[in-house]
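Q: Can I see a sequence and its folded structure?
A: Here is a first one.
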Amino acid sequence: MKHVVASFALGLIALSGSVQAQNRAICYNCPPEWADWGTQLKTIQMRLGIQIPPDNKNSGQSITAMIAEKANPVADVVYLGGIASDQAREAGIITPYKPKNWDKIPADLKDPQGNWFTIHSGTLGLFINKAALGKKPVPQSWSDLLKPEYKGLVGYLDPTSAAVGQVGVMAVNLALGGTYENITPGINFFKALVKNQAIVPKQTSYSRVISGEIPILIDYDFNAYRGQYTDKAPVVFVIPKEGTVVFPYVMALVKNSPNQENGKKVLDFVLSDESQQMWGNAYLRPVFAEKLSAAAKAKFLPDSEYERAKPVDLKKLAAAQNMIIERYKNEAK
């Protein structure tokens, strides 16, 4: 009898594990604090019955983990800064999947074979806690950040692993007269910024700006607007006078993932009307521009300010990625 009970109990445990697997998907680089992924994860669970645990990796850390796990993948889907999309494809860690609404995505914002696709984009600039600045003026340009009055007050994510850090180097570089092939102006800027005692975290640092621990962060508009309008913090977003870039974020299906069907459902969802409207309400620009509501758009800076923000060339940026990492590591860090 004991053997029967034990076998029955083991069967229940196995069944429970099977049900859990059926209702689960793993997304690398889906931090609840970033781009309002928290709301998306909750909605995916409500709509699809699929639970996705939050994950705080950045793009570089996600790719490193996926390469290490290639023989036995853990993740089902991955969210990456666009600069990392071709790197993931070339490493053989993602696999083609064309989700619903694929055909509506602009050609330059997806891989033609379906290896990755854009879900939304952000504009890089200055996310500033005015209260933490005290009586210091709100900086209006990249060059302002090098002034002695901002010593120890400026932060940016580490360009050796975070996509936003690498985009920051290139955004400044292009604004100061560099090119995708010549990044010396950008490297020189960050070298000077390090000397001005910059703060260089590796992970998403939204809460550190809201608290005033990092008064100025090189970051995206969507985080600043969230702080200003949702969390009612004393923060503003500034598009630097010299100009900046608009940067896409992409998703992909992990090759040989353990819960591949769930992964596909998640990728279908992030391009759905509901999800695209949610990204817009989180102050991102949805890949389907018409899904940005008038109410959300009214909270953005005027279009005249955004004229200084140019779409990044993903292919050229990806080609420059290793150069950005190595030169930053060797010259600026």
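Q: Show me another, different protein.
A: A second, unrelated one:
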Amino acid sequence: MSVSITAAFQAVNYWLSEHPSIVNFRWSHTQSWGSTWSFLFTAITVYIVAAITIHLTLSILLSKRRRIPLGPSPALHSLCISLISAVIFIGILLSAAAEIRDTRWFWRRTKTVTSPLQWLLCFPLGTRPSGRVFFWSYVFYLSRFLHLFRTFFTVLRHRKLSFFQLFNQSILLFMSFLWLEFSQSFQVLAILLATLLYSVVYGYRFWTAIGLPSACFPFVVNCQVLLLGCNLVCHFGVLPLHFLKGGCNGIGAWAFNSILNGVILFLVLNFYLKKMYSSRRRSSETR
């Protein structure tokens, strides 16, 4: 039994962290799909324009109560994202452990990184977007395009389109691009936190989409607030390392990323508080 478990772990470890395609990965504008600035801005523009166009078209042609049946598509979409997020979480966890194992000797020479936690928060200056963790960062970036479909499901099924949804999806896609383009520090922890929460949240959405009971509290919003809160706490850990250890790679992108995370957290909290206020108001009116 123990032999089979060991063999299974070795197989998983090979395919998710030691495969030549993962070890030799390099972020390149000529070889990596979707790696140019023009592609990024075109994709975001197409996404926003398509979502607004579909929403306006349905508003003109159909009544607000009319819903478009989507069948099992939303449930399958949630299941796919949950499984993909779980694979990315395991892959980048194994890859980070392998990178720490293989680069410990280099830390003694640079003196900018002395522990695994410092490496997770602060890449040494000169870090290039290549190798295991950046392969999974690239997969995470590609998975962000799959997340965009949820906006269209919301428009078609619920006939709703909010500025927050468009802004949030666009900014998250933009930030994941910055991680690769500038080899930004802290991205490994950010991806670990995000994929762990996504696997849980989208698994929950699949659970409720197939008719199983939902939680008695706003589960998804609470998870979003938890994720953003953890991200902001970890962001503050980069600052002392940057100033005391000689600098962290991609600090400009990190600063921009921190501002965007703060904006998203503010919008999520604002939405959450408004939702709580409206639900309490409705309950008081029914008494």
